[in-house]
Specification:
- Chain B: Keywords: ATP-binding, Nucleotide-binding, Transport.
- The complex is a heterodimer of chains A (243) and B (271).
- Chain A has helices spanning 2-16, 22-36, 41-62, 71-111, 114-120, 125-163, 168-175, 181-207, 213-242.
- Chain A has 243 residues and is mostly helical.
- Chain A has one domain (21-242).
- In chain A, helix 4 packs antiparallel against helix 6 (125-163), helix 4 packs across helix 7 (168-175) and helix 6 packs across helix 7 (168-175).
- Chain A starts with a helix and ends with a helix.
- By secondary structure, chain B is of the alpha/beta class.
- In chain B, the strands form 2 sheets. In chain B, strands 6-7-8-3-9-10 form a 6-stranded mixed β-sheet, sandwiched between helices. A 4-stranded antiparallel β-sheet of chain B has the order 2-1-4-5, covered by helices on one side.
- Chain B is globular.
- The chains are: A mainly alpha (243), B alpha/beta (271).
């Protein structure tokens, strides 16, 4: 475990020493941002809208005390979404989609000697292949989390009003009650940390793949599993430290 | 010229290279010959810097490569072109983009127009001027090898390394690839190192042959000398092919038939 962590640190160090030209990195980062960000919009939208909707309906189902105002449902949807569901669930979804794609892509490049080809040309392969992926993830995860927050709250609104569990007025009143702007900052910090963990762990797993097609599959699975575990540990640690 | 001195490499305590000392001459096709598992590819990977040898030194035209500063190693690496066994073309790029890639990365001073011209020249040189827009998945194994060669020579390399360039190819395509490597070596006066266990390549382009056996260099010489070599391991390797055995028998029966056989292959007849 300690050896693996040491290798991971060395891997990250190699990525930032002898980097490629800024223009090359910029172009690669934009390409990766499209793959990581734009191509994930659909799945993140679907997941976050339905999570917001389900959260709203289930809170309404549990909130039977007539002394508690209906607007509490909107308040709770907002708090749960911003603090936990949008950053964590979105990152877990992206660990599955983006993490497996990064590990699979790099693993295939490794076993087909494409990474060796870069090294022989005198190109720092970690800088060329991994750094843009991590930068793109750091850029796109917060954007996707902001989008997920918005869609989750809208999903809750639609579910609440269309099923008749609460009025639109109550929901809007709830989501405007006792708003703490720091919670948004906290969610974005979490998004950045999760982005680094998902992209870094997946790249590490893929980059050091050895063997053949079977090992590429194993690297993808390992990348997703380890990323999700890392997200959950970091989630707890950040909540304990920053809240 | 590339000089390898007393190179040793082991994996988990198992020695793979046992003090290999050899020289690869400029302007010649240098063949690293040997059976499977004799350390040919490991030696090649040590020379190009993909593996670090345990002991020994590698010198490129007088510049020591092993254990030198990263800047010196980078400088040498940028003069290296390599054709990989599986071609190692970048899947996400077209054939032309693959050839242009080292130019984009290594020669930023070149204008896009100059790069395009160089790509066209290299693709034409390997006979693929019409395949520039194809993806690697859309072309045959032989074409992939030729794209690999075009990519290797695009930045005007000084050293060309080929890891089993004929693997997976039919005999006719293999001969074409061998001829192309041979022509390019002489045209640009580069130092070419080819890892092979193909006797056709030995007869076709073996200007300087180094025979490895169980991690040691047992013999070196030319293609004209190899058939009369007295090293038992080399003779076992060469004459394991019934075709070469038959050719040797004809040579002995006809007194010089083998020379005619070599001449025939040199003039383009092949085996």
């Amino acid at each position: 475990m300690l050896t693996t962590f040491g290798s991971f640190v060395l891997f990250l160090r190699g990525m930032v020493t002898r980097t490629e030209r800024f223009r090359v990195l910029w172009n690669r980062t934009i390409d990766e941002a499209i793959l990581i960000g734009v191509d994930s919009v659909f799945i993140v939208s679907i997941v976050s809208a339905f999570i917001g909707a389900v959260t709203c309906v289930q809170i309404a189902y549990n909130l039977t005390n007539p002394l508690i105002p209906q607007s509490t449902i909107g308040y709770m949807v907002r708090e749960m979404t911003i603090l936990e569901l949008a950053p964590t669930i979105t990152s877990i979804v992206l660990a599955g989609k983006v993490g497996s794609s990064i590990a699979g892509g790099l693993g295939t490049m490794r076993i087909t000697e494409q990474i060796s080809a870069l090294e022989v040309m005198g190109i720092n392969s970690t800088s060329y292949l991994v750094l843009p992926r991590i930068l793109a993830a750091l850029l796109m995860f917060p954007m996707l989390v902001i989008m997920a927050m918005l869609l989750s709250i809208m999903g809750g609104y639609l579910a609440g009003t269309l099923t008749g569990v609460m009025t639109a007025q109550d929901y809007i009143e709830g989501i405007r009650t006792d708003f703490i702007p720091y919670n948004i900052v906290f969610a974005l910090i979490k998004a950045v940390v999760f982005a680094f963990l998902v992209s870094g762990i997946s790249s590490f797993k893929g980059y050091f793949t050895t063997g053949g097609a079977l090992e590429v599959g194993a690297a993808s699975t390992g990348a997703v599993t380890n990323s999700i575990i890392a997200i959950l540990i970091a989630d707890f640690a950040l909540a304990a430290i920053l809240l | 010229m590339i000089e390898v001195s007393n190179l040793e490499k082991s994996f988990n305590g198992t020695p793979v290279l046992k003090g290999v000392t050899c020289t690869f001459e400029t302007g010649k096709c240098n063949l690293l010959l040997g059976g499977s598992g004799t350390g040919k590819s490991v030696l090649l990977q040590c020379i190009v810097g993909l593996m670090k040898p345990d002991i020994g030194s590698i010198t490129f035209d007088g510049t020591v490569y092993t254990n030198s500063k990263i800047d010196i190693r980078q400088e040498i690496r940028r003069k290296i072109g390599m054709l990989f066994q599986g071609s190692a073309l970048f899947d996400s790029m077209t054939v032309a983009e693959n050839v242009e890639f080292p130019l984009q990365m290594l020669t930023p001073e070149m204008s896009p127009e100059e790069r395009r011209e160089r790509v066209e020249f290299c693709l034409k040189r390997v006979g693929l001027e019409k395949a520039g827009n194809k993806m690697p998945a859309e072309i045959s194994g032989g074409m992939k090898k030729r794209v690999g060669i075009a990519r290797a020579i695009a930045p005007q390399c000084t050293y060309l390394f080929c890891d089993e360039p004929n693997s997976g190819l039919d005999p006719a395509t293999s001969i074409k690839i061998d001829e192309l490597i041979h022509e390019i070596t002489h045209e640009y006066n580069i130092t070419t190192v080819i890892v092979t266990h193909d006797m056709n390549s030995v007869i076709e382009i073996g200007e300087h042959i180094i025979f490895l056996h169980q991690g040691k260099k047992l013999w070196d010489g030319t293609k004209d000398e190899i058939l009369n070599a007295t090293v038992p391991e080399l003779r076992d390797f060469i004459f394991s092919s019934s075709l070469v055995r038959a050719a040797k028998r004809v040579d002995e029966e006809t007194e010089g038939g083998m020379a005619a056989f070599a001449e025939e292959s040199e003039s383009g007849g092949g085996i």
